[in-house]
Hints:
CATH class of the largest domain: Alpha Beta
Strand content: 15-25%
CATH architecture of the largest domain: 3-Layer(aba) Sandwich
Number of helices: 18
Distance between the termini: 55 Å
Largest sheet: 6 strands, mixed
Radius of gyration: 31 Å
Strand order of the largest sheet: 10-15-14-13-11-12
Shape: elongated
CATH topology of the largest domain: Rossmann fold
Amino acid sequence: MPTKKIKSALISVFDKDQLEILVPLLQKHEIVVYSTGGTNDALVKLGMETIKVEDITSYPSILDGRVKTLHPKVFGGILARREENHLSQLEKYEIPEIDLVVVDLYPFEDTVKSTNDESTIIEKIDIGGIALIRAAAKNFNDVLIIPSKSQYGFLQNILETQDGATSLTDRKQMAAQAFNISSHYDTAIFNYFDRDEKGEDKFKLSFMKGQTLRYGENPHQHGIYFGEMNNVFEKLTGKELSFNNLVDIDAAVQLMAEFENDKPTFAVLKHTNPCGLATRDTVFEAWTNALAGDPVSAFGGILISNSKIDLATAEQITTLFYEVLIAPDFDEDAQALLSKKKKRVLLKINSFYRQNKNFKSILNGVIQQDMDLKMESKDDFECKTQKQPTADQMDDLVFANKLVKHLKSNTIVLAKNNQMLGMGCGQTSRVDACNQAIAKAKKFDFELEGAVMASDAFFPFPDCVEIAFNAGIKAVIQPGGSIKDQLSIDFCDANDLPMVFTGTRHFKH
């Protein structure tokens, strides 16, 4: 199919920036320009001769600008096929052909981010612009659509290097871009109206651009990240993040959100699982005790703190090989030291924000669920045994229960003095998880006498409680809910072992 020379254009944009790039090129090719309102004023100021849309429609912009281009004399010129039947109708009704449509939509998403005022947000729902985009994209056989100022470069190239002529490939390529923009825009509007989650179940997400990763979970897998990481982190130094880095970072943020408002807390994660965590009076002490939890697994791990990193802590961290270090801030000298390791990633976290929903692809669809944002406090605990936990034990039970939520099931956590001593995770039986946690603690020479145990789900039998008791555990926390709960309660009562129920299971598959 031969190329089509651009002879006429309709320009209607919210953001007038960069129009100065197009004006001299439009003038050079003697393209007739139709325009609206503020766009027309901006073009005229740039020296462009224009025809106001209202001069061809015989209607002014009405309803505070809500209706400007919505008229047959505009859409007829865009939607008409360049064939005898349609062209004769254009001539009959004195409708000009429009070969190029340039649009930049009202900034709906930016408005939602900047205000909670509903009337302001609603006014930024573009009607005419979306209609122009869809109409021009539908008629890509004859019309070129430029649906955003981000595509001005594409138009500039056509006007500079193709003598203002477009191929079918050009027009079809931009039609695809147009429907990408319009579908994303509609999804953003839907999600705004659906923020109260009423009505039928539905799943709609849209990202305009992805970031290609080095590879996926393994080198033979392609990986892309869709999201706005800059809203969460400021990347200070380091290599590009990988697929596995991002998965681990997300797990680290979810975990540390539980301790965001606590005293200095440090965690070490490997393959999404915390292998060391401690809360102390200083970040240095928290780091030292977290690393002690499993200094072997810490190699190549993800490190995260809820507190600013000082130089003393940085000096110790830098002796370890790690992938990513996350903190709310870094002292200037600490950052300078850590930045010397050019491949190590430093992330300054803006907030420990967590989504309300999570989802994953499965089979030929997607499963979605509420995020597990529930975390029990002491007030939620119900002591099921004759002996009550001491105040110190209760603090450790709270600490261990936060941790157990973020380990793969089946899982057991052993803790004492706000330090994780051992964990068993991802096991096919709770007994295996319990034995693994004890073996881990013993491997790194922790004294389990006086420690507490947490489980992510109930004990169907008293075996885990007995194993833990024999290892020196002095208090237990679990959700409860088994028809055989009483067996574990009876064992605890017989051995003077306090046990509390949370009433909430925290499986993590």
